[in-house]
C-alpha cells in the first residue's frame, strides 16, 4: 500500500477519537460504492495542527479500498466533529450551537442554494460535498469531500490575496448572498439558530478591535490604491462597529438581509504545510 505519511500534516499531538475507525467508514463506502469489497488501509491524519481551531476537530481520512473486481483505489475525506467537553472548549462551543448549524448548512441549505443556480442554468458550488452527516450520542460528525484532491489550497493569511483573487472571493460571496436572498423570498425567514448574535462582552472596550484595525490600515497602504486615506477614514470605531453589528440582528422582517456562514478568512501561516480549516472554504470558489 502507498505511504501517505508524507502527503499531509501528521502529528502525534492531536487526540483521535476511538470511534473514527474502519467500521465507521464501511457504512459510508458501502453506500458510495456499489462494488466496494473491503478496506485495505486507513490513515487518520490531523488536518490542522493543535490549537489551530478551537471549535472542532478536523481530520483527513485516507482510505485504500478494494473493489469486487479486485482493483483498488484511494479515497480521501475530511471529517469534522465536535471536541470533547473535557478538553475545555466543547461546552462553550455547544452554547453557540455551532455544530447543529453546520449540519443544517451542509446537509440542507447549501445544496438548496446551489439548486437555485441550477434552475437558472448555472453551475455554482459553495461547499465541498457532504457525504455523511449524523448526530450520535450527542456528537455531530460531518464527513466531507477532500478539496485538496481537486487541487484546492488555502492562501497564507499573512501574505493575503492579490487583487484577482480578492475579486474572485468577493464574486463568490456575492453569489452566496444573492442565493440566500432568493431562498428567503421562497421559504421565508431562515431558522432561528441563524438569527442569533454572538459577540464577546465588552468587545468595544477590548484591544482586539483596535489591533485588527491597525493591521487593516497597514495592509491597505500596501495595495497601491490612490488616496487610500479616504478609505481608512471610513473605518468605524469599536463603538460604531458593535452598534452596527447589533443592528444586523434586529427582527424587522421588512429589512433586506442575507445569510452568512463561516469565518470568511484563511487560517494558514507562511511556511505551514497543513491544509487548514475547511470551515469556510466553500466561499473561495474555483482556484
UniProtKB/TrEMBL annotation:
Cited SUPFAM superfamilies: Protein kinase-like (PK-like) (SSF56112)
TM region positions: none
Family annotation (Pfam families): EcKL
Coiled coil: none
Residues in CHK kinase-like domain copies: 142-286
PANTHER family hit by this protein: CHK DOMAIN OV1-RELATED, PROTEIN KINASE-LIKE DOMAIN-CONTAINING
Protein's UniProt name: Uncharacterized protein isoform X2
Amino acid at each position: 500500500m502507498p505511504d501517505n505519511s508524507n502527503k499531509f500534516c501528521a502529528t502525534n499531538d492531536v487526540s483521535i477519537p476511538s470511534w473514527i475507525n474502519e467500521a465507521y467508514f464501511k457504512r459510508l463506502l458501502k453506500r458510495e460504492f456499489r462494488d466496494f469489497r473491503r478496506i485495505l488501509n486507513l490513515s487518520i491524519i490531523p488536518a490542522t495542527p493543535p490549537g489551530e481551531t478551537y471549535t472542532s476537530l478536523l481530520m483527513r481520512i485516507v482510505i485504500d479500498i478494494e473493489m469486487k473486481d479486485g482493483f483498488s483505489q484511494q479515497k480521501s475525506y475530511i471529517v469534522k466533529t465536535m471536541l470533547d467537553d473535557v478538553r475545555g472548549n466543547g461546552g462553550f462551543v455547544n452554547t453557540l450551537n455551532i455544530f447543529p448549524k453546520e449540519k443544517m448548512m451542509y446537509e440542507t441549505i447549501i445544496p438548496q442554494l446551489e439548486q437555485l443556480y441550477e434552475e437558472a442554468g448555472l453551475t455554482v458550488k459553495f461547499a465541498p460535498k457532504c457525504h455523511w452527516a449524523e448526530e450520535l450520542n450527542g456528537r455531530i460528525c460531518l464527513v466531507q469531500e477532500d478539496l485538496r484532491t481537486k487541487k484546492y489550497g488555502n492562501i497564507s493569511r499573512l501574505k493575503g490575496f492579490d487583487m484577482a483573487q480578492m475579486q474572485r472571493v468577493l464574486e463568490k460571496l456575492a453569489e452566496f448572498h444573492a442565493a440566500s436572498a432568493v431562498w428567503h423570498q421562497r421559504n421565508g425567514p431562515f431558522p432561528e439558530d441563524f438569527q442569533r448574535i454572538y459577540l464577546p462582552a465588552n468587545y468595544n472596550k477590548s484591544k482586539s478591535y483596535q489591533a485588527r484595525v491597525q493591521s487593516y490600515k497597514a495592509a491597505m497602504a500596501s495595495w497601491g490604491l490612490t488616496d487610500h486615506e479616504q478609505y481608512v477614514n471610513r473605518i468605524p470605531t469599536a463603538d460604531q462597529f458593535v452598534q452596527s453589528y447589533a443592528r444586523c440582528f434586529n427582527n424587522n422582517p421588512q429589512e433586506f438581509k442575507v445569510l452568512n456562514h463561516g469565518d470568511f478568512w484563511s487560517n494558514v501561516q507562511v511556511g505551514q504545510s497543513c491544509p487548514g480549516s475547511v470551515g469556510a472554504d466553500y466561499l473561495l470558489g474555483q482556484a
